[in-house]
Amino acid sequence: MAKKVPILDLNLIHPHETRKRKFVCVECGLSYNLKDYRVLFDNRKISYFVEEAKPQIRICHDCLLSFAAKKKEEMGAPKLYVRLDIGDEEVILNFS
Ligand SMILES: [Zn+2]
Fold first, then answer.
1. Of 25, 28, 52, 93, which sees the most CB atoms within 10 A?
2. Where does residue 67 fall: left (phi above 0), alpha (psi -120 to 50 degrees), or beta otherwise?
């Protein structure tokens, strides 16, 4: 039987909807407060995602790929799907 491919759910932290005040990427340490994040997000410079299963884990868009690669490694899975919930859209990335 084929093994089920694990799915990593990451949700966009929308700066105009969140109540969080500070955003730090677990990978690169990039950090902004809410005010700056709003400006940068609106200018399409940065977006932060949160791991659905571990809401304390936040990750910037630049680090999504390396983060997913690490997760795949950790799980020892040959394949990994990353589901990005970006509000009005859902994107599935396939890592194998
Ligand atoms: Zn980062």
1. 25
2. alpha
Token output for 19: 């109540």
Query: By three-state DSSP, how is residue 49 classified?
Result: strand
What residue numbers bound the domain in which 58 lies?
Answer: 7-95
What's the total number of domains in the chain?
1
Mean pLDDT of residues grouped by 10 in the chain (96 residues)? 85 96 97 98 97 95 95 93 94 90
Distance 57 CA to ligand 1 centre (A): 11
* 2 CA distance to ligand 1 middle (Å): 33
Residue 48 lies in a domain: yes
